[in-house]
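Problem 12. The chain below contains 145 residues. Write out its predicted structure in token notation.
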Amino acid sequence: MTDTMNDLFLVAHIGGRTVAIASADVESVVDIGDVMPVPRAPAAVVGLAALRSRVVTVIDTRRALGLAGQGAARRAVIVRAEGHHYAMMVDALEDVVPLRLQPVANGLALDPAWRAITLGLVERDGEPVPAIDLAGLVPALSAAA
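Solution.
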């Protein structure tokens, strides 16, 4: 991505926060049905779900980011990381829109989990919105296991 032209981003909400996800990183958007719990998995791993004839690991994105409350969300963004598909739960989805990625300003304080996945900022309706890499949460979950 460059900062001189607009790229397509999926606008979503996680824990009451608006985020932008590069559309190139989104395999699909789905509604999650039944989830089978996985014993001894990290707290952010909700379990496994069958989606379109494949099994995906369902992640409570709020919990993975250290946000309060457990999500009752049933929507998810499917991403691929480390050769596997993950359903990253989101509270709500809006639309895919063209936005310009800008670097994060020096001195901007971000929690460590957010810092690890923030690619930059986009401006939407005059407000800065973090552009995030949801797949970037997967290595942190693997380390927690």
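Discussion. The chain has three helices and ten strands. Students who got a different answer should revisit the alignment rule from Section 12.3.
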